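User: structure tokens for Kinase-like domain-containing protein, please.
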Amino acid sequence: MLSQTLNDLHLVNSEDSEETGDAFELIAEGLASTVSKTWASVDNREPQLLAVKTSTTVKKWAKEPHDIMKECRVLKSLSHPNVISAIDSLLDRAQNTMSIWMPFIPHSLSTLLDSAHFVPQPKATLFSPVKDPLSNFLILTHSLMIQIINAVAYLHEQRIAHRDLKPANVLLTPTGRVTLIDFGIVWDGSRDDKNGDLWPENEDNMYFEVSTGPYRAPELLFGTRSYDAYAIDMWSLGAMFAEFFTSLIPSSPSSDDLTYPIYVTSPFASDSGSSTWNPSACYSRSSLFDASRGEIGLAWSIFKIFGTPREPANEEEEAKSWAWPGFQSLPDAQKVEFTKVDGAPLDEQLLPNLPTAAPDDANALLDLVRKLLRYPPKWRLKAEDAQQHPYFSSAGWLAPEDLTLDNISSGEPSKVGADGTLGNLLLRALGFV
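Assistant: Done. Predicted tokens:
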């Protein structure tokens, strides 16, 4: 059990905070909460860097449906190496806030995806050749995806749905261990008693204002108050997994960057090796879907790929990506009339960094993503079934050195490969080595 006070935590000033006397450094501030980091000693052990998430417990000041009370309760009930752990919590009744103390983890999947080093066939660099980039890319991709799906499967087994899966909420330790964070809008189906929640929900009155931008499932865009929260997670996983293979685009290149060719549409997708790239330039990863123009724009972005939803007339049409029985019954489905389109193939045109040089791997990945991104929630692959998908059962992935194999359900990983540990591959892909 975690204590409701911080008697076992002893703050120590970091070098950066000695001048100000403040032991906390603000690292993120949003409408719903703030996150700081601090050095602290737990149970008189060596000081470690911790992250502290703080949010109001007053309903009128809280950002609906974000609920730190529920987040804290859920985190206390969970125990998995790929899910963030709550070291302690503090309910400050004087300030009407709650703080959750968690391990500080330095890297994120969003940072990795934006790295120009994390591609299957990078352009030749002026500084050093890339050694076996395809193999390293596939191993790192497999290793991270397997951990992510294992974490989600564990949550769903506990009847917990995250409802905000996205690259920024997937942290990575230096050893390559995945850690899911930010359970602020979690769905807790494990209990009927919602007393103490800031924003109580039941199966007939759920928030559709959950998930983020391009990772939102389409049913959330049409006003439903009763939906399968676990299927929401699976759609988000499909969008996130696809993003491992989308384009990298330059983000606001400086004048120094202009001495190098800029690949605007699909950089690093070609293996010609005839061009060079600037490894110090800033890039951003394209999402599969475009949420920059609001919910209607996001819906159309999805429909352009998978087709405008409609009722299938027979079993043959049920296999079509546009098939969605019951779509018209969603509360807002008939408020906007979309142009009827059949969609576009989900292939290397949309995923230019798909490892086509490894066709079996690429085909298995496409099959997985398609099964996660089905319109009808009940047709989407469930987490426990996704764990057994051929993409995850294939060989060639590594377990983090600090992850016990008891929590591994796919394949038989080792901890050291031909090019070192998973941590070595991760740091190389982040451009640190």
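User: Anything notable?

Assistant: Residues 133-157 form the longest helix (25 residues).
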